């Protein structure tokens, strides 16, 4: 078969797998859908869309497993991995008894220093900075991570092992890079690409929430909203509101005392913005489901009341903290001087001894 014939056959197979994957996803058969998309990526890994499709399936599969196992699946997997290592050290017979279990992906599971030394050529995953993504620049770390972690030679079925949420993030990072690289620096990104990046950032935020990285979820949702507003498509109004509601949910779990970048004032401003958007939709009859928007408005009002009821933490800058420390030190010194009464006690002089009379 000629080269063009092979390419045509591969293109046909990819289309069939994509159709099958979409059908399995619609029917809720996520594991079969995942297998279809991994086969697509094994055949063609230069397009970002299959990465997003696979990432969404992995995310939904992770949610499904959490519902079944009560969120304990990751702990059980790690405990099983540790027990397998102990079994290897104790006896070979116990290792052979687990021969039916598939081998773990060494790049996704590293439990001790020995494994880390064995695979020291694999660098840890590094999230691209938001500034780099906004500018369209791709760092060397991102390129190296993409080449190493998503190697077609190893097969994308490896993403079925380990933490499915983390694996989905890896796929979305790769898709984001590919979308950004496809846009020419001198030209504005096409609106359809912007909407695809909205999907990427929206899904990143959902996964960040599952991983309890709420600060990063807020950043991803805000980026999705910004891009959606820039694209200004017909469906963007409903989509923006949907992302805003998830943004409000993520904000509820952020503690300003420990999380950087989100202050109570910023939290309040975002909630007020959502409230105005909802009231405008309801007033102008722009909503497709007025009951749903009224419930959303009620929820935002409750969030505003809860935020107002929270005790506001006093935030000190560096100078204020130094002044407070110095003041405390001075007060401590003064107290020690006052408590030292030895200098205040008047001591009587000793009378000289009288000489005995002769």
TrEMBL record:
Keyword terms of this UniProt record: Coiled coil, Nucleus, Repeat, TPR repeat
GO BP annotations listed: CENP-A containing chromatin assembly; DNA replication-dependent chromatin assembly
Coiled coil start-end: 283-310
A family per Pfam: TPR_8
Stored Gene3D superfamilies: Tetratricopeptide repeat domain
GO MF term list: histone binding
Keyword Membrane: no
Domain Tetratricopeptide SHNi-TPR residue range list: 199-225
Highest taxon of source: Eukaryota
InterPro entries linked to this entry: NASP-like, Tetratricopeptide_SHNi-TPR_dom, TPR-like_helical_dom_sf, TPR_rpt
TPR repeat spans: 14-47, 198-231
Location of region: Disordered: 68-152, 339-358
Compartment(s): Nucleus
Broad class of where this protein is predominantly found: nucleus
GO (cellular component) term, any one: nucleoplasm
Biased composition (Acidic residues): 73-97, 140-151
Keyword Coiled coil belongs to the record: yes
Family: Belongs to the NASP family.
PANTHER family: NUCLEAR AUTOANTIGENIC SPERM PROTEIN, NUCLEAR AUTOANTIGENIC SPERM PROTEIN NASP -RELATED
Name listed for the protein in its UniProt record: Tetratricopeptide SHNi-TPR domain-containing protein
Organism per entry: Torulaspora globosa
């Amino acid at each position: 078969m000629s080269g063009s014939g092979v390419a045509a056959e591969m293109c046909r197979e990819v289309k069939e797998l994509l159709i099958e994957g979409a059908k399995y996803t619609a029917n809720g058969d996520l594991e079969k859908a995942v297998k279809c998309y991994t086969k697509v990526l094994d055949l063609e890994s230069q397009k970002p869309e299959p990465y997003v499709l696979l990432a969404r399936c992995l995310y939904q599969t992770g949610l499904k497993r959490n519902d079944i196992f009560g969120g304990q699946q990751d702990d059980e997997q790690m405990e099983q991995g540790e027990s397998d290592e102990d079994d290897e050290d104790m006896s070979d017979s116990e290792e052979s008894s687990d021969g039916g279990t598939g081998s773990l992906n060494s790049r996704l599971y590293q439990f001790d220093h020995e494994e880390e030394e064995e695979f020291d050529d694999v660098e840890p995953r590094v999230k691209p900075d938001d500034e780099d993504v906004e500018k369209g620049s791709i760092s060397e770390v991102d390129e190296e991570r993409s080449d190493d972690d998503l190697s077609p030679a190893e097969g994308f079925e490896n993403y079925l092992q380990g933490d499915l949420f983390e694996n989905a993030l890896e796929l979305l990072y790769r898709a984001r890079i590919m979308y950004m690289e496809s846009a020419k620096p001198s030209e504005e990104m096409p609106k359809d690409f912007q909407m695809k990046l909205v999907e990427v950032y929206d899904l990143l935020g959902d996964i960040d929430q599952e991983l309890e990285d709420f600060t990063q979820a807020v950043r991803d949702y805000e980026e999705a909203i910004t891009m959606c507003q820039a694209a200004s498509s017909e469906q963007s109004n409903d989509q923006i509101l949907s992302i805003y509601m998830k943004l409000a949910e993520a904000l509820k779990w952020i503690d300003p005392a420990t999380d950087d970048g989100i202050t109570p004032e910023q939290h309040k401003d975002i909630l007020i913005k959502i409230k105005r958007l909802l009231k405008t939709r309801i007033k102008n009859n722009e909503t497709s489901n007025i009951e749903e928007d009224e419930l959303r408005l009620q929820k935002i009002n409750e969030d505003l009341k809860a935020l107002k009821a929270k005790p506001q933490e006093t935030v000190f800058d560096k100078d204020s903290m130094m002044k407070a420390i110095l003041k405390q030190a001075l007060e401590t010194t003064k107290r020690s001087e006052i408590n030292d009464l030895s200098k205040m006690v008047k001591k009587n002089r000793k009378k000289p001894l009288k000489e005995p009379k002769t």
